[in-house]
TrEMBL record:
PANTHER family: TWO-COMPONENT RESPONSE REGULATOR. The modification 4-aspartylphosphate is found at residue 60. This is DNA-binding response regulator, NarL/FixJ family, contains REC and HTH domains. InterPro entries: CheY-like_superfamily (IPR011006), Sig_transdc_resp-reg_C-effctor (IPR016032), Sig_transdc_resp-reg_receiver (IPR001789), WalR-like (IPR039420), WH-like_DNA-bd_sf (IPR036388). Keywords: DNA-binding, Phosphoprotein. One of its GO terms (biological process) is regulation of DNA-templated transcription. It comes from the Bacteria. One of its GO terms (molecular function) is DNA binding. The keyword DNA-binding applies. It comes from Cellulophaga baltica.
Length: 221
């Protein structure tokens, strides 16, 4: 298990809750805290210089503005800065954000290892996330997976092409005809019908209007 963790979170009560939960559940020997991104960065930099690096950073992505002068104003800026000095550090984001497309970006661009959505069960989830990330796995909160039914990352170009035509008001039969004319494969009406049905199931939509609304809300189209 990780032996040295840093928590970057601007609410002291949240910090205390995380520290207590992780100490009790995972028996991590050294858990440090910082309320500001700049101080978190400096602490990690000093530890790296002293050959006693932090193994895991747990950070929020939103930090409130206040009177303190800062260079790093968000968890994303903190992650980017830390990756330049310690690329191998494991990172779990613990935040209120529940937009799948934004969370996808954190995995793709910031190369985070886990995402926990703050909520009623987030401390238990955080412990699970740490355990999985320690084993070189990734973690995403179940509530995020429920939003997209485990498909945060798998809307392919064919799905997007179908969704665009549905949003423009075309029927599945009309989409099939258009795909054939434009040499888009597969183009059979039955295949398109199956893909649309799967999208309905994946996103919990009852009709095309609701599906488009869900995907638009989540920033997927």
């Amino acid at each position: 298990m990780f032996k040295k963790i840093l928590i970057a979170e601007d609410f002291q009560d949240t910090n205390n809750g995380i520290v207590n939960a992780l100490s009790n559940k995972l028996h991590i020997s050294e858990i440090q805290e910082e309320l500001y991104c700049d101080k978190a960065y400096n602490r990690i930099k000093v530890a790296q210089t002293n050959n006693d690096p932090f193994e895991l950073l747990i950070t929020d992505i939103l930090f409130k503005e206040n009177h303190v002068d800062r260079k790093l104003r968000s968890g994303i800026e903190l992650i980017n800065a830390i990756k330049t000095i310690q690329p191998s550090i494991k990172i779990i984001v613990n935040s209120m954000e529940d937009n799948p497309s934004k969370i996808k970006t954190l995995f793709e661009k910031q190369k985070i290892d886990g995402y926990v959505c703050k909520g009623r069960h987030s401390l238990d989830e955080l412990a699970e996330a740490i355990y999985l990330v320690y084993q070189n796995n990734t973690y995403v909160s179940p509530i995020i997976n429920m939003v997209s039914n485990n498909n945060v990352f798998v809307l392919d170009e064919f799905d997007l092409s179908i969704l665009k035509e549905l949003a423009d008001g075309l029927s599945k039969k009309e989409i099939a005809i258009k795909f054939k004319i434009n040499n888009i494969t597969p183009s059979s009406e039955s295949t398109i019908d199956k893909r649309v049905s799967k999208l309905f199931d994946d996103f919990g939509a009852k009709n095309t209007t609701q599906l488009i609304a869900i995907l638009t809300r989540d920033g997927l189209i």
